[in-house]
Structures are given as C-alpha cells and as structure tokens.
Amino acid sequence: MGSEVEIIEAGQKKVLTVSIVGEFEADPASSKVSSVSPLGKALIGRKKGDAVTVQAPAGAVSYTIKSIK
C-alpha cells in the first residue's frame, strides 16, 4: 500500500492519479483510494500497461495503468 498509480479511463485522455491507502485512510476527494475498494482491489498486483475494469454504480469503467510509483 501507499503506491501512487496513474490511470487513464478508456476513451479519455485525462490522467487520474490515485494513491492506494489503508481502509481508514481513504479519502476519495483527495484521490486516496482504499485497498479494499473496487478500484483499489483492481489495481493491486497489476503493472504498467495493464487494463482493469471496475464495477461502478453507473456501470463498468475500464482503465489502463500509465504508471505506478
């Protein structure tokens, strides 16, 4: 945990940077994503270039991992 991940939503150009943190440190407004959230779970163990799909309330959202720091 504590990784900073740059992701790009499928069909978009904007890079989103999220930090994967513990469950009690999560703060979506600050781009801190819990390791037990759907996005956090999808990103853990992945590498640069991998594509992940996350089930969101509005439907499935796909991302490509641009970098992991």
UniProtKB/TrEMBL annotation:
A biological-process GO annotation: regulation of DNA-templated transcription elongation
A Pfam entry, by short name: GreA_GreB
Residue ranges constituting the Transcription elongation factor GreA/GreB C-terminal domain according to the UniProt record: 1-69
SUPFAM superfamilies: FKBP-like (SSF54534)
Any one Gene Ontology molecular-function term assigned to this protein's record: RNA polymerase binding
PANTHER family per the UniProt record, alphabetical: TRANSCRIPTION ELONGATION FACTOR GREA (PTHR30437)
UniProt protein name: Transcription elongation factor GreA/GreB C-terminal domain-containing protein
